[in-house]
């Protein structure tokens, strides 16, 4: 089949290119909606206007600055180098970048190297059949210029398709793809922040479990001695078998608690090893949790800074921006699109003259197309993109609300748990004295065995509660660091 515009001269073909470039540089008609500014409180705490608000934040600190335990720092560094989730996040960045590269290519003409061959047998009473027959009778046609029937058609050259971006649809698509690249990078930062916090959380949990195991071991020894003492008193006839059974039951209960804590240590170590990207093995620990130091005061900065620093908020903002751009692209689908299809190559109906300079053919086909019957499909796509944009808006709003709430909760937790720990520490001292007093009174016959058992149990519960509060203090610090977007530097 003879290509359309086959006889178009070179000048008209070249003149069409500047026109196409001019159209592609036209002003964008569909401007995406900007990302709205979210209202945030002036500070995380209620303060008087005379109070100075510190604009610095521990969220800006590297994890090596906040965490002084070298064992913990080494574990975090290992996790950042080997964690599978972080490697997955890096692959998502590569995927987003590749999508951006595809969107960039959509702005440029697609050029394909083409080699085609076909054959047509025209009927005698068809336009081409009569025309070719009449052409072959001409005195000017001879030899290889005669048109055979069936008529082959050979083409070797370049064919191109190019959509001229009149309404900014392709440029907006490129912008959306680039914004999603930025969102994927923030997603990677979010994984880093969460990974740093999770490693620290499990590490302090391990230290707390170690302390609990040590406390339980000490109480097992004390209860074992108490059991031996009551057995001696039973032999002397001062107590009954019931007292011996009560002391033995308490000892067995404490040993059972010891086994449960040991299992919790194994599970915590395995969770930590998974984050580190390695198989189960012993986790090196530094100083005990009782010797770990908390900062006397922490700075959290301002809520307005949180919006620009916390990765999940920044990611939600990028996703909202991309969703708004998608809406602009969907609106542009209603307008006609201009497509050019130029070609340049060798075209002939005989293979022996295909590469002859006189067989060079070129042409260009341009056309406008707009949705007509399928407008419902285009409208449906616009509804979907608009809903996705609103969803992204609410996700962005939720991320900010969650971020501010987490900062306030963790910040208050540091203060409250510090006060609780001070009270519990005093409680432990009093109960230890009470336990020692009950032992002396029991040995001299002034206290019952139930009072001794109760005193020992109260000491154990109070010491374990103190460790739990100490652990909660460090988890509040880790939670605050994570809430402020720390760990990405």
UniProtKB/TrEMBL annotation:
Domain of life, source organism: Bacteria
UniProt xrefs under SUPFAM superfamilies: Outer membrane efflux proteins (OEP)
Subcellular location: Cell membrane
Membrane topology category: Lipid-anchor
GO cellular component: plasma membrane
Alphabetical UniProt keywords: Lipoprotein, Membrane, Palmitate, Transmembrane, Transmembrane beta strand
Xref: Gene3D superfamilies: Outer membrane efflux proteins (OEP) (2.20.200.10)
PANTHER family: OUTER MEMBRANE CATION EFFLUX PROTEIN, OUTER MEMBRANE PROTEIN-RELATED
The protein's name: Efflux transporter outer membrane subunit
């Amino acid at each position: 089949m003879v290509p359309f515009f086959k006889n178009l001269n070179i000048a008209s073909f070249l003149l069409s290119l500047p026109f196409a470039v001019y159209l592609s540089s036209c002003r964008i008609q569909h401007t995406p909606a900007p990302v709205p500014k979210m209202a945030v409180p002036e500070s995380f705490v209620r303060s008087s206007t005379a109070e100075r608000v510190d604009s610095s934040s521990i969220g800006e600190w590297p994890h090596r600055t906040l965490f002084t335990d070298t064992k913990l720092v080494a574990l975090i560094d290992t996790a950042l180098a080997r964690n599978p989730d972080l490697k997955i996040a890096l692959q998502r960045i590569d995927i987003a970048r590749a999508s951006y590269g595809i969107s960039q290519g959509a702005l440029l003409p697609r050029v394909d190297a083409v080699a085609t061959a076909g054959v047509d047998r025209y009927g005698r009473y068809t336009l081409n059949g009569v025309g070719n027959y009449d052409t072959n009778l001409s005195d000017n046609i001879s030899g290889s210029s005669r048109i055979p029937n069936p008529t082959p058609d050979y083409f070797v050259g370049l064919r191109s398709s190019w959509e001229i971006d009149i309404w900014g649809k392709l440029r907006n698509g490129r912008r959306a793809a680039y914004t999603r690249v930025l969102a994927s990078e923030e997603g990677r930062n979010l994984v880093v922040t969460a990974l740093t916090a999770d490693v620290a959380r499990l590490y302090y949990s391990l230290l707390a479990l170690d302390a609990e195991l040590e406390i339980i071991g000490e109480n097992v020894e004390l209860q074992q001695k108490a059991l031996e003492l009551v057995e001696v008193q039973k032999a002397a006839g001062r107590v009954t078998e019931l007292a011996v059974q009560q002391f033995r039951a308490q000892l067995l209960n404490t040993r059972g608690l010891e086994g449960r804590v040991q299992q919790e240590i194994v599970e915590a170590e395995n969770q930590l090893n998974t984050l580190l990207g390695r198989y189960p093995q012993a986790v090196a620990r530094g100083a005990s949790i009782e010797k770990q130091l908390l900062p006397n005061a922490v700075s959290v900065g301002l809520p307005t800074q949180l919006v620009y620093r916390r990765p999940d908020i920044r990611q939600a903002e990028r996703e909202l921006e991309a969703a708004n751009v998608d809406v602009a692209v969907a609106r542009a689908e209603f307008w006609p699109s201009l497509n050019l299809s130029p070609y340049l190559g060798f075209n002939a109906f005989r293979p022996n003259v295909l590469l002859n300079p006189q067989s060079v053919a070129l042409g260009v086909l341009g056309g406008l197309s707009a949705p007509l019957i399928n407008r419902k499909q285009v409208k449906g796509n616009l509804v979907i993109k608009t809903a996705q944009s609103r969803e992204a808006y609410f996700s962005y709003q939720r991320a900010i609300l969650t971020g501010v709430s987490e900062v306030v909760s963790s910040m208050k937790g540091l203060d409250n748990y510090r006060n609780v720990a001070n009270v519990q520490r005093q409680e432990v001292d009093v109960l230890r004295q009470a336990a020692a007093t009950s032992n002396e009174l029991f040995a001299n016959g002034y206290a019952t065995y139930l009072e001794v058992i109760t005193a020992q149990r109260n000491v154990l519960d109070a010491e374990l509660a103190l460790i739990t509060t100490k652990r909660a203090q460090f988890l509040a610090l880790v939670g605050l660091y994570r809430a402020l977007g720390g760990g990405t530097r």
